[in-house]
Structures are given as structure tokens and as C-alpha cells.
Amino acid sequence: MHEALSFLIDHQPLQMHLIIMTREEPKLPIARLRAKNRLTELRGNDLRFTRDEAMLFFNQIMGLHLSSAEVFALEARTEGWIVGLQLAAISMQGCSNTTQFISSFTGSHRFVLDYLMEEVLMQQSEKVQTFLLHTSILDRFCGSLCDAVLPNGMGGDEILAYLERSNLFMIPLDSERHWYRYHHLFADLLRQRLYHANKDKAEEIAVLHTRASQWFEENDLEIEAFQHAVAAQDVDRAATLIEGREMPLHFRGAAQPVLNWLKRQDASTLNERPSLWVIYASALLMIGQADGIEQKLSAAEAAMKQIDSKEVDPDLIGHIASIRATLGVTRNETDTIIAQSLLALEQLHPNNLPVRAATSWTLGVAYQLQGDRAAARRAYTEALSISKRMGHLIITLMATLGTGQIQELDNQLNLALQTYKQVIELAGEPPLPAACDAYLGMARIFYEWNDLEAAERHIEQSILLAKQIENTDRLSDSELFAAKLKLARQDILASEALLIQARHEVQERSYPHLLGEVQHLELLISLHRGGFPEAVKYLETSEWPVLQSRMHMIQGNASAALALLATLYDQARAKQWKNEQLKLRVLQALAFQVQGDLERALQRLKDALTLAEDEGFVRLFVDEGKPMLDLLTEAAARRIQPEYTGFLLSNMHHEQKLNHFAIHSPPIRFEPFSDGLSRRELEVLQLIAQGLSNQEIGDRLFLALSTVKGYNRNIFDKLQVKRRTEAIARARELGLI
User: Which residues form the signal peptide (predicted)?
Assistant: First the structure.
């Protein structure tokens, strides 16, 4: 038959086009036809059911009324195999709990089992059956791996070629036809048959796993080597593989499998190898579970005391110190981080690059907390250099994150955004919880650029990831920023709710470094509500200098604000803190405005604009409200950086239109003034304090000169003064300006 078909194919007329529909590779001379595009092939992937076809089959043909999720689960389990779908449908007829059936539908189900046994497995030779059963322990396989696992070398490549030609439920995993796996249901059947045949000889299956583990290790696939060592219940081999030759296994993305195995071990097993206690602690730290880490480290130290001191490896002491330094990072304990990091570097073996890279990173965090950003950048760069060279994912991620934070603090917003994106790419899918800081950084940057929708998307992701990390300030930090974002959206109730929640966490868990932001948000919410209630008067004595300067301005005490801001600015300049210098220039401009010194206010504003323009800062100015609007309007009138001031003013006016009310000036009175000034009188009084003449006030407010003079008389009467200088002094005394 094949000879006749081959002759026909070789001599077919030009108008003939061959169509082949098969799951197996036919024994026909079709290579030439493929090359000339004179052949159409419908193979296994074309014949399998799609999800839509499976939905139609189950619900319309078989009348089972399954949900989309149930159909998709069956389609995934059967991999679109039509007979498998049909066997599942037959099995479900009259079934009272289809959900339970679907979750348990495997190759051991009686209909599937009978079909695969009768139609597939029993039709093979004894040699092929042995091959199938013994290689079923493998999630993926290739010829040389099969040779290593099978006794007496059965010719893996030869049998694999036969199985593929026969389409015997074997699926290629690459285009080179090197790696394969079995169909899910077929693999279930084979494993069941293997374990059933060796139910009294478990050691024989363990031997298969050990052979597989050895092959994977020899081919530098140590995660799979570890998995098979675990299956073989070979504790010594599993422990050796966890420790790794150049890098512990959990540093390579296998933290959860390693933890799962360690949790199943007796304490006596771990005590025999104290390094396993240390790896236990390190793996917990890697997945964000801080609870229990110190307990594991103490257990390691206790186990080490039972060993001859000469046999204790200093490298293990260094690794313990490095983990404690990282724990210090989660608590912002600078002294602990530095002390433990230096101890780690002293004890670690020079070739223990993975832990040395981690220790360089912890030092970078400590320097960043101290405000030495240049030293932090150098430490992060060193950690990156080591971790990238050896493929240490988690430290590459964390050092990249630290670099992005330094860039952001240096006002390099565009560069920081790209760095944060690299962190998210490194974090994978689903992302590692540590990526929460990258999302938070991106939220801050988009907020600063006034892209509030993008900021909201990123802060939501940051909060989701931060919730997966135990006993750190990451969630509180993200929630505080979310509260600030809600405030920018004028959603005061939502902002206040988030703030209350974050404040509770900050106080409950003692995060003093976040208290300043809590107090700042309390002040902003109070001002947005149009008053200054007793609830936040305690902020007058806040220990946070920037907040103190704002309180001085609210009270009209510009001199005190300026003195404090000058000191803070000198400190920031000495330390080369660029972000702080920019923010302080903005506050100095506002303080000079309160003092009535418009010229110096504009000079400080110009300094701030110069620092901010290249990176496109927006909210830094918009969030200051009406006082900043007035300053920017004056700057635009004087052609001070006209393009940028025009851009900022357009953002401020858009904000005003979006929120349907004027950008307000924060209230500046603690007690209501008995003969209160009207809104217009307050505006005139502010302009008088800025040194404008009556004519200039009229031009600014579009009022006639006589009207301005009338407002002056009313203001003087209410303040009980006779001249401008007295009015300004009295207004400052009352906190009106």
C-alpha cells in the first residue's frame, strides 16, 4: 500500500494537491512536496478541540450545561484530545457533582484508564512499555536523560523517534525536537501503573529518581536535580543540592520548593547540617515571611555549638550576619544593618559571591538611610556588578531598585522610571513582593507628572504586593501615598480613611520615619476642609522641621519659617540632596510671599523652576494651591521661564476646572475674626501685603480705582488701623496673611 501511494505521489499531475490528515508521521516521500508548497497537512494541533469547540461539544452535543470555567478546565486537562473530552462527557452523565469530578479527572479515571490501557499501552512491545513506565517519573525528557534513567541503556533517541512518529501522546517542547513531555492524562496513567507494579519495591522507583537527579545535576539543571532527589527521599543529596556549588538553590528562583522540603524535615535532620537552618531563614526572608527567621538563625547557632569549634565554617557565621543585616533593612535599623554587614564581610569566604552581593546591597540601604547617597549608589553598583555576573536574581532586583530610588532622590525622574521598569521586569509574573517599592516609585513619578490615573494603577499594584510582605513598613508607606493621591482627586473621605488606617499601623508597629508624612497629610486634609480644627493644632510643635516651617507660614510668622528653611537648605546643599533642595526652594518662595517680599519670592521660585523644568515637575507646584498660582502668574507676567510657567499654569487651571471650584488658599486663621473680612477684602489685603499700589491692585483684580479705595477703607475699619503698614502688621498678628 505504501509503495503504491509513494509511486502516485512521485508521479502525480501538476494540478493535483495532496492533503494529509494524520496524527502520525506517514511513511511517504512528502519532503519534496512540503518544500514546493504542494502539500497541506492537518496534524495533531489542528485536530485538537479549541475551547469554543469544547464548549459546543459539552453543552450542545452532550447536554451537560457546564460553565465556561469547567469547560476550560477539562480542555486544559485533556489538552483538546477529542477522545479524552468524550470520555469525560460520558463519565459526567448522571454525575451529581460535576465540579468535584472535573477537579479529580485524571488518567486514572476508569474510562480513560480502560481506553489508554487497551488502545495504547497494551498495543506496545514490552520494551516500549518499560520505556514509557520508567520515563513517566520525568516532567520533561530527552534522549540522553532517558538513557540515564532506564536500565541497560534502551536507546532513548531511537524510542523517542518511534513514539513521535506514532504520535503516542508525546508532546515536543521545542522546535529542535530535543525535549518532550507526555500528555497529562497519559502521564497520569503511566505513573499509576508504575507505582502499582512496584508497590512493594519503592526503592526501585527511588533509584529511577536518583538517576534522573544525577543526570540533571551533571547538566547544570540543579532545581530539577533537587526535585528528583526529594522524590527519591535522599536527604543528603537534596541538602547538598540546596546548598549549591556556586549559589544556593533558593537564590535561583526555587525558594518555595526549598521551603516546602525544609518544612517537612525533623529538627534533628536540620541540626546535623546547621547550614540548612540558615538556608531556611534565608528562603523565608526571600519570600517576605519575616516571622520565624530569627528563630531559625538561633537554631543554627545552637546546632553549631554542638560541633567542634575548629569545624565551624566562618562562612556560615557570615551568612547569618548577612541575614540579620537584611532583617535590619526591613526595620530601618541603620546601626544594626551596618554592624551585621561588616561582620558578614569579615567572615564570608571571598568566593561566596551571592551572600557578598547581598551584603553590599544591605550596606547600600544603610548609607541611603543615613543620607549618604553617593556611598549608597556605589554600594548598589557593586552589588549589581556581582549579582548580574552570577545570575543572582533577587539581589539584582533589590540593587536595581535601590539605584532607582537614588535616581529619584536626585530628581532624575525619567531615568528612575526606566530603572523601576527594569525592576518590575526582573520581578517576573506573578511578581515578587519586593517589586512593591518599584510600583510605589512609579506611582510617585506619575503623580509628580500629574498623570493621576497612571499613579493610581501603580499604587494599587504596590499595595497588593506590599500586603504579601510581613512586618515591614512597605504597606504603610504605600497607603500613605494612596491617601495623598485621593486628596489630589478631592476625595477627602477616602483620603482620610486611608490615613487613619496608615496612622494606626505607623503607631502600632513603630515606624517613626513615616510619622512626618502622616502629620503632613493630616494638615493637608484639615486645610482642604477649610479650617484648622483643634485636632491638628498639636502640629505647631511637630518635630519635623519642614512641617514646622509650614506651620510658621500658616501663622503668618514668615521670619521664623525663613530662618528654619535657610538652615534646612544649607544642610541639603552640603549633603547634595537635590530633591530636598528643590522642595525647600519652593517653600522659601512661599515664605517670602507671606512676608510680602515679592522680589525674593520670585527669585526663589525661579531657582525652583530651573531645577524642576528638565524633569517636568508639576504636582510640586500644583499642590501648593492659590499662593503658588499667584506666584506663577506673576512669574509668567515677568517672562520668567515662560514656557514652563505657562505649562504649570495650564495644569493649575485645568485642576481648578476639573474640581469645579477655585484653587483655594489654605486657611491661615486659628480663631475666627469677629468682624470677618470678605473673600474680596482678604484678596485686597494680600496684595497690599505684597506691596502693590491701589492702581496695581485694581489692574490685578479688574476693579476700578475707586472700588479698591473703598475696600481699603473697609479693611482699615475692621482692623481698627489708619494706614497700610498698620493693616499689614495687624493682619499678621491675627493670622490673616
Answer: none
